[in-house]
Design goal:
Blueprint (H helix, E strand, L loop, with lengths): L1 H10 L1 H31 L4
Helix pairs in contact: 1-2
């Protein structure tokens, strides 16, 4: 927790929030990409 406070003090609150949200979005985009690949494989026999 102390490290987060130092990041906020050094970088500023908006930058820390942006980095946090980018990290969260990246994991969700990876999951979405995997789901789309699975859907494409499931629909391949129907072409």
């Amino acid at each position: 927790m102390e490290q987060w406070i130092q990041y906020i003090a050094n970088l500023g609150f908006p930058i820390v929030v942006s980095l946090y949200l980018l990290t969260r979005v990246e994991t969700k985009l990876t999951a979405l990409t995997d789901s789309i690949k699975e859907l494409a494989q499931a629909l391949t026999p129907y072409k």
